[in-house]
Structure formats: C-alpha cells, structure tokens
Automatic annotation (TrEMBL):
Catalytic subunit of the mRNA-capping methyltransferase RNMT:RAMAC complex that methylates the N7 position of the added guanosine to the 5'-cap structure of mRNAs. Binds RNA containing 5'-terminal GpppC. It comes from Pelobates cultripes (Western spadefoot toad). The record marks K129, K135, R160, H209, E291, Y388 as: mRNA cap binding. It catalyses: a 5'-end (5'-triphosphoguanosine)-ribonucleoside in mRNA + S-adenosyl-L-methionine = a 5'-end (N(7)-methyl 5'-triphosphoguanosine)-ribonucleoside in mRNA + S-adenosyl-L-homocysteine. GO terms for cellular component: nucleus. SUPFAM superfamilies: S-adenosyl-L-methionine-dependent methyltransferases. Belongs to the class I-like SAM-binding methyltransferase superfamily. mRNA cap 0 methyltransferase family. MRNA binds at N97, N98. This is mRNA cap guanine-N(7) methyltransferase. Signal peptide: none annotated. Residues 1-67 are annotated as: Disordered. CDD domains: AdoMet_MTases (cd02440).
Length: 397
C-alpha cells in the first residue's frame, strides 16, 4: 500500500495463501458459531412494508463482459410482489437482511443527527429496485440520489418512489434523483443534477463486492462512494465476509459449499488474489452473477486515500446481538417478520421441512423455560445470511 492508501502494482498481484501462517489470509475459528440466533416471545406483528432485496429469480444466461452481465442479470429480475415473497422458502432470510439494513441505516442517521441539524442527503449506491426507499422515508431524510448499473432496476426504483409519494401525499417525502451508471467505471460526480451536491451518508447494500474484479474498479466505486461525503459523513454497507467465505471453502472437500438454500462455487481453491477472486453465488438454486472476494483489510487501506476511517466491521451475528437489545429494534424485528416463529403457529408449517434446521431452537427450549414462541431462522437460512458483514467508515475532516 503506498502513502495515499492505494494498493501498489505488486500488491495487486499478491495472492493470499490460506492457512499458510505467513502474511496471507488467516482463517481463525470463527467467532460466529454456526448456531442460528433465537429470540424469545416472538409474536409477529403484521408485515405491511414491501421493501426487499433484489434476490435472483432467474438463471444466468451469458458469460461474457462482466459489468454488462451484472446489469443484464439485475435488469431481468422480476418484481414478484409481497405475496410471492412471503411464500418463499427464504422469506425470513430476506426479512432478516432487510431488518439488518434498517438497523444500520437507522444507527447512522442518528449519528448524523447528533452532529448536525437540518437537511440530510444520502447516496444509495447500487439501489436496485429501491428496496430501501421506505427506510429513507422513515429516516426523514431530505434528499436521496439512487444509482445503479441496471437501467430497468433504476426505472422500477423511480416508479416505486413516485408510488410512495402518491401514497404519502400528506407527508413530507424526500426529493429524489435517479442515475443509471456503472459505478466501477463512471464518475458519479459528473452526473448529479447539482454539481456541488454533498452527502451525509453513502449506503452501499450488498453491492460493493461486484467492484473487486480489479483494483481500478474497486477504487472508482470507492471514490464514487466517498468523494462527495461531507466531513463527518458515513460510508455504510453490507458485503460478503471474505474470511467467512474462505473458511467455509477450506472446510469443504471440493471448491463448493452450501446447503439447500444457498451455494458458493469458487473457481480456484488455495489461492485468493486480492482482486478478481471470482466465485458464483446461488440462492434457492438460482445462479447469481459472479461475485468477487473482498479481503477487508485491503478495503480499509484503500479507503484512506479518500480520507475515510473505519468505524467498524461487524459480522451479522455481532450486529444482530447488539441491536436486538434495543426495544425499538426488537419491535421492528417482529413487525418485519425477520425471524420465524418456532414452533410454527397453528395451521401453518415451518418454512423448512428438515427437522435438523430447527435443532438449535428445540435445544434452546429443552435447556430452559423460554417464553414461547421463539423467533429464529432455520439453520440453512442462517448459514446463508451469516456469510455477510456490515461496515461503516467515517470521512475525516
Ligand atoms: C443484491 S442487489 C442489492 C440492491 C439494493 N442495494 C438492496 O439492498 O436491495 C445488488 C445491486 O448492485 C447493483 N450493481 C452491481 N454492480 C454495479 C455497478 N458496477 N455499479 C452500480 N450498481 C451495481 C446491481 O445492479 C444490483 O441492483
């Protein structure tokens, strides 16, 4: 890493050797055990929100040109509506991820408000179809810029915003702007309607890993995320945890791991280049576009170039355990049905029909007298979601 925080040519070519005891990627016993979380007294409240992640619902067709492949993939995702999503095998995983994003966004809006009064402007980098619009409305921001590589998603996001505004006629809804751009290849600052705009937060949810194809791309996306942040502003997001992925890969006998909900296939095992370390991620049997491993310490170093300091990096478990102590977040957890009710309510079934998916909940009940029903995730869903981490950087003055 040079003085500006850039990764030098030779570092770009460095490979991380797993379990080599040297300066490569160390795979320690994970502090995130594989046991899913359980939460007592989980009577769900009715879910009314329709915010969601853009999960794949179709098979990947092409193999050439990565950026256009990403755009084509997300453009072809169908908007399937709340009812279909509620019937999905991974409904609680989706809701759980959404709750995590809500808690992260809420925390950093609070932090911004502790520092300043007045208008809050946000950049949603890789906004998808606008799964977080309601979170920004709830957070009472003044301005949102939504940007994504997939033009169909941006159009749907714009439509969703316009529907939201119509629905909330009597409420004060933030103003919004929509930009279709490949943030790994284009400067966003040349595209804003207000060329002087600055942001209090850049939110990059389940996106940044697409940029780690090359150092150049990762750097430009980072620049887009950070260069218009005001001093004290935040770059927050969620992304797969490179350590966790490599740990699971190394524990597997093949170059593949996963379960009936998700699977990850690496192209190479044992060598993990800092950039371009490609793997295929599939959810519910559907192959997503290839993703790239992020070795987090590299991101921390690269961010220094943009005057960004890491505030924290947390696993999903760490963040969940911290946030669930807060009553407001706990209520939201129930409202968003982010955990599955165990045992299942009368006349309904658990989302997984595999008994071992709920072994942890059964044991939790046997080992104590918790208030029932519990809130939990099936083991398969937990294994899929616990791949991710949350991060937050702050712009130094
Ligand atoms: C898993 S989706 C997440 C969407 C949204 N952030 C959410 O949490 O619901 C990943 C998004 O990243 C976008 N994306 C991937 N590569 C991108 C790039 N180079 N520039 C801008 N957006 C990109 C995709 O089009 C997709 O909408």
């Amino acid at each position: 890493m040079d003085k500006t925080g850039s990764v030098t040519e030779s570092q770009q070519q460095t490979h991380l050797e797993s379990n080599n005891g040297g300066n490569g990627l160390q795979i320690s016993e994970s502090e995130t055990s594989s046991r899913p979380p359980v939460n007592g007294g989980n009577l769900p409240l009715k879910r009314t929100r329709d915010d969601d992640l853009d999960y794949p619902t179709k098979r990947l067709r092409t193999q050439e040109g990565h950026s256009s492949k990403v755009a084509a993939h997300y453009n072809e995702l169908k908007e399937c509506g709340l009812q279909v999503r509620n019937e999905s095998r991974i409904v609680h995983l989706r809701n759980f991820n959404n709750w995590m994003k809500s808690a992260l966004i809420g925390e950093f809006l609070d932090r911004v408000r502790q520092k300043k009064k007045g208008r809050i402007a946000v950049l949603d980098l890789g906004c998808g179809k606008g799964g977080d619009l309601l979170k920004w409305k709830k957070g009472r921001i003044s301005k949102l810029v939504c940007t994504d590589i997939a033009d169909v998603s941006v159009t749907q996001c714009r439509q969703r915003y316009s529907d939201m505004k119509t629905r909330c006629r009597n409420e004060d809804v933030f103003s919004a702007e929509f930009i279709t751009a490949d943030s790994t290849k284009e400067r966003l600052s040349e595209k804003y309607s207000d060329p002087e705009i600055t942001f209090d937060i850049c939110s990059c949810q389940f996106v940044y890993h697409y940029s780690f194809e090359t150092h150049e791309q990762a750097d430009l996306m980072l620049r887009n995320a950070c260069e218009r942040l005001c001093p004290g502003g935040y770059f927050i997001g969620t992304t797969p945890d490179g350590f966790e992925l490599v740990k699971r890969l190394e524990a597997s006998e093949t170059n593949l791991f996963g379960n009936d909900v998700y699977s990850v296939k690496f192209y190479e095992k044992g060598k993990y280049p800092l950039f371009g370390c490609k793997y295929d991620f599939s959810l519910e049997g559907v192959v997503n576009v290839p993703e790239f491993l992020i070795y987090f310490p590299v991101l921390v170093e690269m961010a220094k170039k943009y005057n960004m300091k890491l505030i924290y990096k947390k696993t999903f478990r760490e963040f969940f355990e911290e946030k669930v102590k807060n009553d407001e977040q706990k209520t939201l957890l129930r409202k968003m049905q982010a955990l599955e009710q165990y045992p299942a309510p009368d006349h309904s079934k658990l989302t997984s029909d595999k008994e071992e998916d709920y072994e942890h909940a059964k044991m939790f009940i046997e080992n104590g007298q918790p208030r029932l029903p519990l809130g939990t995730l099936s083991k398969s869903e937990w294994d899929a979601t616990s791949i991710y981490l949350l991060f937050a950087f702050e712009k130094l003055p």
